[in-house]
Amino acid sequence: MSARQDSYAPLDPGRRVLMGAGPSDMHPRVYQAMGAPLTGHLDPYFIGVMDDIKALLRYAFQTRNDMTLAISATGSAGMETCVCNLVEPGDEVLICVGGVFGDRMAQMVERHGGRLIRLESEPGQPFTPEQLRKALTGCQPKLVGLVHAETSTGVLQPLEEIIAVIHEHDALVLVDTVASLGGTPVKVDEWCIDVCYTGSQKCLSAPPGLAPLTFNDRALEAIASRKTPVDSWYLDLSLINAYWDGDRVYHHTAPVSLFYALREALVLIHEEGLEDGHLRHALNYEAFRAGIDAMGLAFYVDPPHRAPTINPVLAPEGIDEAGVRRRLLEEYGLELGGGLGALKGKAWRVGLMGQSSQRDHVMLCLGALEQALLAEGHKAAGSGVAAASAVYAG
Amino acid sequence: MSARQDSYAPLDPGRRVLMGAGPSDMHPRVYQAMGAPLTGHLDPYFIGVMDDIKALLRYAFQTRNDMTLAISATGSAGMETCVCNLVEPGDEVLICVGGVFGDRMAQMVERHGGRLIRLESEPGQPFTPEQLRKALTGCQPKLVGLVHAETSTGVLQPLEEIIAVIHEHDALVLVDTVASLGGTPVKVDEWCIDVCYTGSQKCLSAPPGLAPLTFNDRALEAIASRKTPVDSWYLDLSLINAYWDGDRVYHHTAPVSLFYALREALVLIHEEGLEDGHLRHALNYEAFRAGIDAMGLAFYVDPPHRAPTINPVLAPEGIDEAGVRRRLLEEYGLELGGGLGALKGKAWRVGLMGQSSQRDHVMLCLGALEQALLAEGHKAAGSGVAAASAVYAG
Fold first, then answer.
1. Which among A84, A257, A340, A349 is the top mutation candidate for probing chain B, defined by the most B β-carbons within 10 Å of its own β-carbon?
2. pLDDT digits (tens, 9 = 90+) for A127-181
3. Does the pTM exceed 0.90?
4. What's the CA gap between A167 and A193, in Å, rounded?
5. Cα(A214)–Cα(B387) distance, rounded to whole angstroms?
6. B182 and B204 in contact (C-beta within 8 Å)?
7. Closest approach of chain B CAs to the CA of A268, in angstroms?
8. Which residues on chain A are in Cβ contact (under 8 Å) with B229?
9. What is the ipTM of this complex?
10. Which of A23, A226, A323, B108 could form a disulfide with B83 if both were Cys (CB 3.0 to 4.6 A apart)?
């Protein structure tokens, strides 16, 4: 019954450069905000923090939706909040599965009693409007779920045209923007996305633990006309909104420190401006791409379909991908993500998200990867660092 | 689509003295730990942090249970994790409802398809073994749920005898220790509690956002013999445990900073020693009680049934309880909780939990309350400060 050991060393993780699938690096101001003195979760000052977060999230999502807030749990809980509030037992739901996160959404639909229609993409390819048109012939789903940037594959799904097809069939559109919001355009209102969620720890560069989301009026009507209660109490959006909205009815004790940090991360995005932030992500991706190409390494996804935020780079034949990651972590404090799903053991997932989308990160990553591969016996075709540098030089 | 305003003030909540229903004050070392550099959620260092948390939680829960971990969401999500993993549609479940949190547990049972048997206590009274014995005649619940310290009423439920009665009827025992663990004895193994959960932000004095829990083998067998999948993906304990356990299978991105802070808060509890911590909570409660009695104010609960951690104090006739709280917050930065449920508008809930169970907190609270009541036209019968001081003087 005693703790494992008699005394515990002071916490000291050392420094990291986070270029995996998230968390991303955080700005010093976000660390500072997280350390601000706790208030109660109904304190007038804290209510103001929540109001700021709502306003700033509306900016990030590019929406006027009143129902815009952050769930007090991680991104996958945001996904489940959307699914469990919209799906009732027996509802037909179409999920577009292009990787691990589409598959996760499909699993959630089944757990919450939905009748799942599963549409799979070609490996490494986005869905086409034609695929959706065909899939929607002969079924009448209440909801269609899509992943914008599939973190497991790095595929960026074009949304506008496909959403128009889905709306022709009168279904609600749910979009996962966990690996895209803040890093590449997401225009909830202009693109007519009915329901959208993200995570705090990727392109928003806040600490992990919160899941921002937004619902439009059409989606709220679908909730209001449910015949059964939402099966989860913690993720019941009507109860959560009564705390975020005017009435401030106690639901749960908000993670105060994470809210502080999310507010600050969103203020930083607001200060930079969404468009400038997207340009920064695009530039750093371009430099990174040039470097990987010059080194003779291969991306998993073809150029037109790549997310600028996260990309699997295939490990060369005979190279131990986990060994390279271990070396990068030990020698440089540099974290890359391992392959997930079909790419497990075969690729490094390199994140260029939020505060991790920086010139110094790109240059370190390319240089360190070059040296780590050399140490494992693989010589790069050319200098990644020089090629990336040329991109920055314009 | 622009954010609400053009620029945002720097975050500056000012100082607070937190003596409400939680969050409680945090030790400076916990703030410091929370600000440590982020690592990835599968980083070897972070895995070590998770292992430390498991070991330290076993100490806090006084258990050898292997399945001991923290859910990445707040205390109510811990409650729902226990309910949704143990309750299958049609299962008979008895919930002892003595306040808002027992009622919440009952609601969750119904949402997850359980056949609820609801047992209500006398107002302000704990349940007796006889009540349970009677309630268990004529039914055969799979699970009986109890709240140890009901945050809404301040009643402390004696557990040992009542658990024996429940086990005679072969049901699993689920105990909510959100407002008790760390502040008053909770002996999971010795008292034969099958399932137990708490929140991070009360007597553990970590930031809100995590829900530690522990399941014994009997409870795990109940999960293993389920006929249907758990309806929540995010709260599915088998998936969560695959991340916490040897295999480290990715489930969700752990709230890294909150885990750092929880580890440090648990190290502090380990350093003080659970028993010394309980004595500290008992002494500060005694001093507070003496002060409230001297002032001629009334507790909601009779002395033998009071939790030493949180207690509603009834507002005198004609006194605006919210006005007094507002005054304390504005003049002293002191937060008391408002009444919840049946006590809404009628009482202050005063928390003496974790780092908020301190001599200086007690003295400030009594002195400030005395002055705030005076300002509202109510003169205390005697000096609360002097009476508390006499208790500390021994």
1. A257
2. 999 999 999 998 999 999 999 999 999 999 999 999 999 999 999 999 999 999 9
3. yes
4. 10
5. 53
6. yes
7. 10
8. 111
9. 0.97
10. B108
